[in-house]
Amino acid sequence: MELKKTALHDIHVKLGARMVEFAGFHMPIQYHSIREEHIRVRKTVGVFDVSHMGEIIISGPKALEMVQKITINDAAKLEIGQVQYSAMCYPDGGIVDDLLVYRFADHYMLVVNASNKDKDYQWILKNKIDDCQVIDQSDAFTQLAVQGKKAEETLQKLTDVNLAAIKFYWFVEGKLADVPMIISRTGYTGEPGFELYFANEYAEKVWNAVMEAGKEFDIEPIGLGARDSLRLEKKMCLYGNDIDETTNPIEAGLGWITKLDKGDFIGREALLKIKEEGPKRKLVAIVLEGQGFPRHGYKIFKDGNEIGHVTSGTVSPILNKGIAMGYVAKEFARVGTELEIEIRAKKVPAIIIKPPFV
User: Is the pTM above the cut of 0.85?
Assistant: First the structure.
């Protein structure tokens, strides 16, 4: 199968990016050093091409009812121009995907993970109610994430929209670099920043304008490698690692987006039961006290007994220590609990901390 390309593919290649297959796309994993790219975002500003993400539009008289049926957060609370972090679950409480819900005046837009887009779309169609339309518009959008402390200053040069007035998890429709787009104060790095959605035909124009505007802050293109380490330092879940169809939102620490009192939705009965009985395990944040690189699937021990496994891990470029997320049996999930992670047949001491790591 031929890999899909974003509208910025040729720019990434020209910049010498290391390109890899990801979610059916040919994507840049790094341009030079993942560590340097990570630090650039934490210090000033970086730009990610995240056009591989999926955008699914739900419209019609019953659009809200449809969104409420398939997502676990309460979309009825959204005002026009507001964004919500949410998830979709299977009837057993397992997670279909985590996503963002955008509320427009006459429709909703679900922004879903690239690797799940086709599966999500089919799931939504399977559960569709009458009097609403569902359209996959993923291929129509270029999406840029401009992230870091200098993101606002960079982008403000290119627009008359007052970016400072856009609150966290809100968006506006306006022009930036003379291109009509959605300007959203969201992101996956834990830094201040924006995500920009616009038509593919303007991709190179917007990219070049943003790179030029951010020159004084040493703006750099950032690949998927640093995107992963940045989100991990802030304990943001990654589908396929920390959450999937075998995990539920309660044990994953996503109880705060699980609105069991909003009325019926897919998975509600199972999640009510899990909440009442208490989850058997919990997703925790772990810092290594010894040397090592904790990786997905590594076993976690307490007093010689296996109690869980690592779901995501890296060596934090900011802390210069191994950090990880992992599921452990609930009796060992308390902050301050000392445990060990098995790395290459050696048990490395570690401790559970209160997230985020950075």
Answer: yes
Nearest-CA neighbor of 48 among 306, 220, 248, 277?
220
Q: How many CB atoms lie within 10 A of CB 25?
A: 19
Helical residues (DSSP H) of the chain, grouped into ranges: 9-14, 34-43, 63-70, 117-126, 151-156, 203-213, 224-233, 268-277
Q: Is 195 annotated as a binding residue?
A: yes
Q: Is the bond leading into 356 cis (omega within 30 degrees of zero)?
A: yes
pLDDT in the model for residue 1: 78
Boundary-marking domain end, from 172, 198, 233: 233
DSSP codes joined into one string, 168-197? TTBEEEEEETTEEEEEE---SSSSSEEEEE
- 309, HSE (Cβ side, Cα atoms, 13 Å): 8
Domain that holds residue 14: 9-49+139-233
Bridge partners for 30 per DSSP: 18
pLDDT in tens, 103-138: 999 999 999 999 999 999 999 999 999 999 999 999
Q: Are residues 147 and 203 in the same domain?
A: yes
Whether residues 152 and 15 fall in one domain: yes
Distances (CA, A) of 273 to 113, 278, 331: 28, 8, 19
Cα 131 from Cα 211, distance rounded (Å): 43
**Closest-CA residue to 327 (of 266, 244, 258):** 244
- Residues sharing a CB contact under 8 Å with residue 300, sequence separation 6 or more, in sequence order: 286, 306, 307, 308, 309, 310, 326, 328, 339, 340, 341, 342, 350
